[in-house]
């Protein structure tokens, strides 16, 4: 997956940027859009937001954007900046080092490769000023695609048309070396054991201790592994999610039941422990505790640590992946958990916001080699990326 910052300039070809976003997203890439004032005359921020599934950035002076993500950060969080359509005016300002709106400021601030995809009237394209600007941009290390030749929206004929979106995707792939169409690596013949969801620890027949885990990330990982041909056993705590296609599901309630189900499911090539397992249980009362008996004191007893038990077991899967839900010092805790539990990888997520129960996640993958930041993405994309990594690691 490549993180692309797409700057949509003001030309009729802006409509083709919509198809470009669709193709890039279908190829598994992350696209964040910046729409210039001119671009907003041709497509709306809403269109780009819907296609990219991301907020669209339009103004340098949007205080909310600056508070959430400064423009410098926006330009640096991408792997590649793509300007499409790049108008004559936008390229002139780029060549001159102008920074008078969000797009040009980002382009001046970025330290990432830039691909400009020009689209303009044939005479504007052939004008010596444009030729000069393009030579300057190329001299500055910016890749400028040649426009297509053909009939133009303005009624003229010649070079100046925006290349077709699939050709732009091919240029992006050539620049980043990440083909969007690369087939997902296979997990055929592998057994993948996944835990997901919370556990419920009964206090009495009607009450229990629980946590906010929804199970969505674990279910998405089970689905992604099954989609790659793996045999998947999903040990699920109490959640109401549908079982992903091709997955064997075992429903459990408590941490102790989850631990037993995991042991029963061994051997496995890979275990991905996504569940938010309760750390403690109480000895449940056999009948409902009554209020008039006074406030009960709950004596918490430790639950088995399923991941640590697997890590120490002689039946340890070849690849052992844990999750770490943290609210602070995320990487410090995740790194410590990796060694304490003898896991190969820890997927660390900051659950301070609305990650638990939400549809998106932003994680770090902590391995023996260090920590990699994965950008905020739908949980399904995090799952795909993790499943690909697992398949690569087993090869
Ligand atoms: N885990 C487990 N069994 C437990 C507790 C945690 O298998 N009893 C696994 C989780 O599935 C996850 C990893 O251990 O893969 C880390 O879980 P987390 O709740 O973040 O860590 P804890 O070890 O419980 O530590 P703490 O709650 O103190 O942060």
The number of domains is: 2
Q: Could you report the average pLDDT, rounded to the nearest whole number?
A: 92
User: Describe the biggest sheet?
Assistant: 8 strands, mixed
Straight-line N-to-C gap: 20 Å
Strand order of the largest sheet: 12-11-8-13-16-17-18-19
Explain what the structure shows.
By secondary structure, the protein is of the alpha/beta class. 34% of the residues lie in helices and 24% in strands. The strands form 5 sheets. Strands 12-11-8-13-16-17-18-19 form an 8-stranded mixed sheet, sandwiched between helices. The chain has a 5-stranded parallel sheet with strand order 2-1-3-4-5, with helices on both faces. Helix 1 (14-26) packs across helix 9, helix 5 packs across helix 8 (128-139) and helix 10 packs across helix 14. The chain is elongated, with a radius of gyration of 26 Å. The model has no long low-confidence stretch (mean pLDDT 92). It binds cytidine-5'-triphosphate. Cytidine-5'-triphosphate (CTP) binds next to helix 12 and strand 16. Cytidine-5'-triphosphate (CTP) binds at residues 195, 255, 273, 275-277, 279, 303, 305-307, 322-325, 337.
